Amino acid sequence: MGSRGLQPLLLVLLDCWASGSAQAGATSAVTTEGFNSAEPAATTLWPALSPGPPETPRAPRPSSGPRPTPVTDVAALCVCDLSPARCDVNCCCDPDCSSMDFSVFSACSVPVVTGDRQFCSQKAALYSLNFTADPPQRVFKLVDQINPSIFCIHITNHKPALSFINPEVPDENNFDKLMKTSDGFSSTAESDISLTTKLDAPSAAKYEYGAHLQTSDSFLRFPSPLTSSLCTDDNPAAFLVNQAVKCTRRINLEQCEEIEALSMAYYSSPKILRVPNSKTEVPITVQSVVIQSLNKTLTRREDTAVLKQALAEVGDIRICSNVVLEVQYSLTYTDAGDVTKAAVSLLLGTVSSAVVPFQQKFEIRFIQQNTKPVLLSGNPGYVAGLPLAAGFRPRKGYPFWFCQGGCLPCPWAWAVLLFMAEGPVGWSGQSPPERPPCAEQDCLAIEGVRAPVLFGYNMQSGCKLRLTGAVTCQLVGQKVKSLLKGQGFPDYVAPFGNSQAQDVLDWVPVHFVTQASHVKDACQLPVALAVEVEWTKYGSLLNPQARIVNVTARLIASAFPETSSGSERTVLISTAVTFVDVSAPAEAGFRAQPTINAKLPFNFFFPFV
Fold it and tell me: I want to staple 47 with a disulfide (CB 3.0 to 4.6 A). Which of 2, 24, 227, 520 is the partner?
């Protein structure tokens, strides 16, 4: 095909979402077939809501051009009809099958028949079996299906572009004309074959990263802002893509009871398919329902029954209660790409005319089965005020190991770097959470009280230790060293806030150094533990991430003369943590000048060479 036939082509618009939502109120014809009856009934499908303001029922707006018409009638198309003039088993679209044949079918081998997938709106024929009827009946629906992709054909101004045309074969009469109108005779057979193979390839038997989560009728909708801050309800949720978004909702308060994007059932009623194109459905369980009043007080409901919006008048103000303000999805998946469990937590509130438009929050997260979620201190870089993640390698031969803050099923133990906090704690930088002061400040009296090391906060703590002649110097030294290091002092620190425990080579080792003064006939006692954390800014200058590059722990010991019997001496024991920024100054870099690397097609001189 030459470039002349490609000039008009197709017009792909982003507002196909709005056009799809205009058809949300359409009804589909449902036909139920039994032994002796075929009764049509009208059934309203789950509507696809419009992101545009205001969210009130409205008639479809006129299109700016001709809408593409389907070439194939999906109601008459049957891909499982393999035997002519004979009913194929479990082929619900076979015209040769009678109601008697449908009553003995176990399932529909082809439940959905669609047309061209490139259209934003397309007809779809849905086939299913009603086993509750006696005898079982076939149910047929013809619906308008919305394409979740933003790259779809909304209108067309060149209908021949929807199908392939027969290219003009060059000969001795038209060769000169084709040479003038074409850039050459480069073959596109390989690209056409690869594109056809991708379109005709069978669907995957598992969810892959970024794949749309399918439901029993469409896909799991995750409202989010696209081209503006307004909520777009036709946005599909993607597998293994954790999201947390906020968007603005414009509504007509008088019709809040009719808007499904505000209802609790809209987010809890869909059933997610365990794997793509399967018949196993995973229902969404409502974990919690919290009610927020107009004065922002929160009340958790004991039951999780579905509540409907209610419009009421309070004095001169009209309010709408039980409106969804926040939605949190939690999906559990397996290594095989199956969705095994789905849960949702909802925050319902009351909306008045004074707060319209209002803001909604939506969040979705994925948790792998048989694993425990680990709280991160940043993603990826550390966030100021969050604890440092630290760990240690258990020795070989130990069947168990102890870790503070939880363990991961791996050869590493996960912990939080703790800090001695027996005495008053001093902070620099931002104000951390308050801790009650210790009145006694006795190191041995309140042993075991420790606080986590927070990234970016320089901390100092101390306590008093009374030395008497009744206790030997060696015993006191071991006790003080154990007091300063704590139980299970970590050997490694995570470089980033989201570092995984299985990435052994990425973790930063803790360099432990002991400093002592050499004085004869003196008692060597550890008096301080100073931890220095060196970090740098990593990544882009626009969004630098904090990365730990070195950790040094210094145990400082001092010499004290032996305490005589009956006398006492008070020693101050202290710990300190310091964060040092070792970032190198950024250097401006320039890319190399572009070079032209042009090559002629291999058949450029055809047929002369």
Answer: 24
Rounded Cα gap, residues 572 and 462, in angstroms? 7
Whole-number Å distance between alpha carbons of 280 and 274:
6
Q: C-alpha 420: how far from its chain's center?
A: 37
Q: Give the range among 183-187, 460-464, 550-554 with minimum mean pLDDT.
A: 183-187
pLDDT band per the 50, 70, 90 thresholds, residue 49: very low
| Tokens linked to 516 | 């002592």
Tell me the pLDDT tens digit for each residue of 410-451.
Answer: 223 334 455 444 433 333 444 444 443 444 566 766 566 677
Q: Which two tokens stand for residue 265?
A: 């059932």
Please compute, for residue 218, the number of CA atoms within 13 A of its CA located in the half-sphere on the CB side: 22
DSSP H or E run through 179: helix 175-181
In 491-544, beta strands by DSSP E: 492-493, 508-515, 523-538
**Cα angle value 504/506/507 (rounded, 5°):** 75
**CA 186 to the chain's CA centroid:** 43
Q: Tell me which amino acid residue 597 is.
A: N
d(CA 604, CA 421): 79
Q: Using DSSP bridges, classify how beta strands 418-420 and 523-538 pair: parallel, antiparallel or unpaired.
A: unpaired
Q: Please give the pLDDT value at position 292.
A: 86
Q: Closest Cα to residue 54, out of 261, 205, 192?
A: 261
For 492, the token pair is 């490694």
User: Which residues does 163 contact at the CB level (< 8 Å), separation at least 6?
Assistant: 71
* pTM passes above 0.70: no
Instruction: Give the whole-angstrom CA distance, residue 283 versus residue 215.
Output: 10
Please answer whether residues 438 and 463 qualify as being in contact, where contact means their C-beta atoms are separated by less than 8 angstroms: yes
H or E, element range at 44: strand 38-44
> Are 21 and 6 in contact, with CB atoms under 8 Å apart?
no
Model pLDDT, residue 441: 63
State the DSSP string of 539-590: S-SSS-EEEEEEEEEEEEEEEEPPPPTT-EEEEEEEEEEEEEE-PPPP----
CA atoms within 13 A on the CB side of 205: 1
Burial of 39 from C-beta contacts in 10 A (0-12 / 13-18 / 19+) = exposed
Q: What is the pLDDT of residue 70?
A: 59
At 75, list the tokens.
């109601």
List the beta bridge partners of residue 344.
286, 329
